Fold TetR/AcrR family transcriptional regulator.
Amino acid sequence: MPRVVDAEARRQDLVEAVWRVIRREGLPHASVRKVATEAGLSMGSLRHYFTTQDELLQFSLRAVGERVTERLRQLEYPADARGVLELVALELLPLDPDRFAEVEVWVAFTAATLTNPALRALGDESYAAVHDLLRDLLRDLLGDRPELEAQADRLHALIDGLALHGVSSPGRLKPDKARAALREHLDALTA
């Protein structure tokens, strides 16, 4: 009797395999062949799910956003706008092994968006979604001020910078320092 395979579970396993290859060897080395080997599949089996390397990489990039979105859905939010904004922003920082892996993969993809138009479009979409979320949360905190968009730009840049430093210099930017930098910025906004 043929084995029934849960296609979505298999695709998630493949995302994990792609991420392991990217984290270990870099995005340029995340070939279909290497990912198939990492996942313990034949090339033919992998091509059943993804016919090209671009499809595989796009799916893997989307998975970063989907995981963050799912975590955000599961959070218990405080009643105050400041607490909500801080909680959401902290989910974007590499403060534990899962978020560290996500940020590491995100950084690798961000660099690839400079030369890969398909990934660039997806990266732009993800960037806009995060920016819009931060702007909306800032609006809840500060109201509709003329400088709202500029404040959203600054907060987004701070989060991106903390995330990048967190994965590129984890010995220097420990999670408690990243949290403190974010809190100081939010304190200054509400002072």
Summary: DSSP finds nine helices and no strands in the chain. The radius of gyration is 19 Å. The longest helix spans residues 117-142. The chain has one domain: 7-190.
